[in-house]
Specification:
The chain has about 260 residues and is α/β, with parallel strands linked by helices. The chain has two domains: about 5-225, Glycoside hydrolase/deacetylase (TIM Barrel), CATH 3.20.20; about 230-264, no CATH class. Helix content is about 30%, strand content about 20%. It has helices spanning about 25-35, 60-65, 85-105, 120-125, 160-170, 185-190, 195-205, 215-225, and strands at about 5, 15-20, 40-45, 70, 110, 130-135, 155, 175-185, 210, 230, 235-240, 245-250, 250-255, 260-264. The strands form four sheets. Strands 2, 3, 4, 7, 8 and 9 form a six-stranded parallel sheet that branches. Strands 1-12-13 form a three-stranded antiparallel sheet. A three-stranded antiparallel sheet has the order 10-11-14, with no helix packed on it. The longest helix has 19 residues, at about 85-105. Bound molecules: zinc ion.
């Protein structure tokens, strides 16, 4: 029997996740487009600018993002590689604290303001218990990161997302493929192209083989999957995490419930 770590929840073979920055009021329309088509994602917010002109309010966050992740983008959007450790900690932890009071759950996801990070930033973020953070470096591929603190997106939405979606959906192999699209919702009115993301969402939604998830859900699931424990003969599999995971045994999905050992 061949056991492989190549399945998303319920045996789904690929994951799609959206990742939008800055928290302008155009997020309302964008979240609604995702909701109408069953897409899910993460909205990375600067808490220092919420409740201002052309921004979301704290009060509306839980309802607007009820199907999505509320995520850190720092309080005031500095380039983190250019500031002190102290400022990184304040910017991240104050953003977490303010967003958590609106979200009602621990906020552990992030994206980098101006795409700015380096090894020092990563080590500070680990101390802030940030689990994943998205960069702005497009890969035009569907790979999961080795380190979720340097999670490179597939592409920005202006970079041929409809063609990439066709390629993504054609691949029927179990390879934990992940399509991550990033951008800012204010770009749609600026470039008069709301129809682009509407068309993408319509075409991307409703696929039984795709897991529609937030950034942090994918990070948490894959982290749990990578931490699964095997007996030497691979007949016993233990899942020490708090998340149900699925492996495949001879290409068939097998659920390993949270905290349980399964004998194949
Ligand atoms: Zn930003």
């Amino acid at each position: 029997m061949r056991v492989m770590l190549n399945s998303y929840p319920y045996g789904k073979i690929r994951a799609l996740t959206m990742s939008y920055d800055d928290g302008t009021d155009n997020d309302r329309r964008l979240a609604k487009i995702f909701d109408d088509n069953g897409l899910r994602g993460s909205f990375h917010l600067n808490s220092g600018y919420l409740d201002n002109d052309n921004r979301l309010t704290f009060a509306e966050l839980p309802e607007t993002f009820r199907n999505h992740e509320i995520s850190v983008h720092t309080v005031t959007h500095p380039s983190l590689a250019l500031v002190s450790n102290e400022q990184i900690i304040r910017e991240v932890m104050d953003d977490r604290r303010k967003l958590e009071s609106a979200a009602g759950y621990p906020v552990r996801g992030m994206s980098y303001p101006n795409g700015s990070y380096d090894d020092r930033v990563l080590s500070v973020l680990r101390s802030c218990n940030i689990a994943c953070s998205r960069t702005t470096l497009s890969t035009h591929a569907f790979k999961l990161p080795a380190d979720f603190l340097a999670w490179h997106p597939t592409c920005h939405h202006r970079e041929g997302i409809l063609d990439l979606l066709d390629t993504f959906k054609k691949n029927e192999r179990r390879s934990l493929s992940c399509f991550l699209v990033w951008g800012h919702s204010y770009e749609f009115p600026r470039n008069d192209n709301w129809d682009l993301i509407e068309e993408f969402s319509k075409r991307a939604g409703g696929d039984d083989l795709t897991w529609y998830a937030t950034n942090i859900e994918i990070c948490d699931y894959v982290t749990a999957l990578r931490a699964v424990q095997f007996s030497v003969d691979e007949r016993m599999i233990h899942n020490p995490s708090g998340i149900d995971i699925w492996v495949t045994a001879d290409n068939e999905p097998v659920k390993i419930p949270a905290g349980k050992t399964v004998r194949l």
